[in-house]
Fold this sequence. Notes:
The chain has helices at 60-69, 88-92, 108-126, 143-154, 171-180, 202-221, 241-256; strands at residues 2-9, 14-21, 36-40, 76-81, 136-141, 161-165, 189-195, 229-234. Strand 6, helix 5 (171-180) and strand 7 (189-195) form a beta-alpha-beta unit. Strands 1-2-4-3-5-6-7-8 form an eight-stranded mixed beta sheet, sandwiched between helices. It contains seven helices and eight strands; from the N terminus they run βββαβααβαβαβαβα. It starts with a strand and ends with a helix.
Amino acid sequence: MFITHEIPSIYLGLTRRITVWLPPGYRRRLRTQRYSVLYLNDGQNLFDPSRAFVGTTWRVGETAADLVRRRRIPPLLIVGIDHGEARRGREYLPVEDDRNPTARRPLGREYAEFVTREVIPFVARTYPVMRSASATGFGGSSYGAVAALYTALVKPGTFGRLLIESPSLYVGRSHLLRLARRVERWPSRIYLGVGTTETSREDWNRETVSNVQKLAAVLKAAGLAERRLRVRIEPGATHSESAWAHRLPEALEFLFR
């Protein structure tokens, strides 16, 4: 079951759509259970093929429902936050991307405020969700992964679960890697996923995988052992919704089991 809402934002200066996926049996448990919640960026690409990039989604609803029914994860809510179309790069990045002329004048800090001070409180007022960090996750892919990671860095203690897929960690000359080295408080569990053929350029492919490995090394140095950190480098996987959908069952199970 999906429910959509329009969230007016002071920080973004506009209204943004979110889609809330409700787990099997939600109405039956409505008065007796409170839920963990996972927020994901690029909401257009998560659930509905008619709205997704080239018609391919992450299959979030189908995957989560299957894991809940098989008791691999507890019932949880998943909130897809739509991206800003032409403003996507600006909203998701805290620094400019020299490879993308549409990502000038970044709004990454404003987006972090939008998520933590407008979206999360709205969901907490509207749905029976647990409000602790351990019950709250955030994630995304590509620029959306940058936005999720950056938000977790500048809002420590907000999220206990982080799902990072194919992150564009090269932006700002590895700005996020430099920030990450100074972080003292990380989420309880982090999933990092990347493919080895993310782009058509071998040098960029090596850079993308290397940056994920560098981030993993930072996390391990900060004390995240195997129980808290999962790194999946998938041979031949591309920079695509289908690749992220393929890794989603493992990611959800690791983060929320």
